[in-house]
Amino acid sequence: MPELPEVEVVRRRLLTCLPGLVVRDVRVHDATVCDLPEDELRRTIAGRRVLGLRRRGKYLMIDLGEPVAAGRLLVVHLRMTGQLLFRPEPRGRPARFVITFDPSTELHFYDMRRFGRLWSLDPRDEEAFFAALGPEPFSAAFDVAYLRRALAERRAPLKAFLLDQRRIAGVGNIYADEALFRARLNPLRAAGTVGPREAQRLHAALLETLQAGIDHEGSSIESFIDPAGRRGSFQEILNVYQRTGEPCRVCGTAIERVVVGGRGTHYCPRCQPRRGGIAPTARRARPTGPAGKRDARGAPPATRGAECG
DNA sequence: AGTGGCTCCTGGCGGC
DNA sequence: TGCCGCCAGGAGCCAC
Fold first, then answer.
1. DSSP state, A157?
2. Which of A70, A128, A218, A238 could form a disulfide with A232 if both were Cys (CB 3.0 to 4.6 A apart)?
3. Residue where a domain stops, chosen among A129, A152, A167
4. Is the distance between the Cβ of A149 and the closest atom of strand B smaller than 7 Å?
């Protein structure tokens, strides 16, 4: 699942190729992917030059400039299985959309589960579009004081708190589980019971875990590959995520799995003890079997996508 | 307002 | 062997 680190890896890869190129055309093969009809989308972006690439939480932004002074902002969310690829090998299903650039570069969007989305925005609407998103983890706004305020008096489990994009932008299921393990905090703890020192640990753990994800070029658990078709390696050093029943790398205790907020949640019951009150709603879930099983499922072989189209 | 739960969507997999 | 139903999850939406 593309989370902040995976989207950041995609952004950095696109940054080596796209800036300076001009949008020649866009073809939409799945009308549900975009907020605009194909012809209207084309009208808003064709002829424009790529000025830069930004990221906000799990959203990727492509800044488009001339010839119209006001510019345009393309926003992509990969959701569960979205992939942006430079002119990949032909596949069974067509790309959901394809953007072609001059000189000859193609960017294809594949998305098995069709949750991914594309928006073409007036840049003046950017603030409103992202208004509900919490602070960027690597920004100055996300400091320990902010985290403590955000946690205060929340009855929701810590895991649900971390997944709430209104509180912190960009954290998803994998990095939430891994950050809680690193912070030695139980995912079922009510967020409001976290003390000052624990909040400090959680803040540090979030930044360290997300940075490790970026350094390892993302987690290729479901289907993540970068625009050049390369897999990340963070899945190889996971401590708890999808390691149900396997020994904790620190203490050897079997990793447990529960469902919190409808999401599979993995933790070490010894390293992440249930101190400080458990949020009432989490229920125990059946194990999903040995970790690694899902690595094989749906993770396509790294394609030989051209580096820059 | 805060919180939980349902829905979308698809391919893989277990069970019968 | 083949079919059916369950499962995974990001985020929007709705109900309480």
1. B
2. A218
3. A129
4. no
User: What's the number of domains chain A is made of?
Assistant: 2
Token representation of residue A160: 């649900």
Distance CA A242, CA A229 (A): 24
Of A residues 189-218, those with CB within 7 angstroms of nucleic strand B are 191-192
- Indicate the DSSP class of residue A247: B
- Which residues on neighbouring strands pair with residue A249, listed in sequence order? none
Name the closest nucleotide to A114, judged by C1' and CA. B9
pLDDT digits (tens, 9 = 90+) for A1-10: 799 999 999 9
d(CA A59, CA A170): 8
The answer to whether residue A307 sits within a structural domain is: no
Instruction: Just list the catalytic residues of A.
Output: 2-3, 58, 263
Contact A64, A45 (CB under 8 A): yes
The DSSP letter of residue A33 is G
Give pTM, 2 decimals: 0.89
Q: Where are the alpha helices (DSSP H) in chain A?
A: 4-15, 38-45, 126-129, 144-151, 158-163, 173-182, 196-215, 293-296
CA atoms within 13 A on the CB side of A279: 26
Render pLDDT for A22-58 as a digit per residue (tens, 0 to 9): 999 999 999 999 989 999 999 999 999 999 999 999 9
List the end-to-end C-alpha distance of chain A, in Å, as a whole number: 24
> Which of the listed residues A63, A97, A129 is the one where a domain comes to its end?
A129
Distance between CA atoms of A261 and A198, rounded to whole angstroms?
Answer: 22
User: What integer is the mean pLDDT of A69-86?
Assistant: 89
A154 vs A35, A36, A143, A149, A279, CA distance in Å? Answer: 34, 38, 18, 10, 10
Question: Does A32 contact strand B, using a CB cutoff of 7 Å?
Answer: yes
In a shared domain, residues A52 and A118: yes
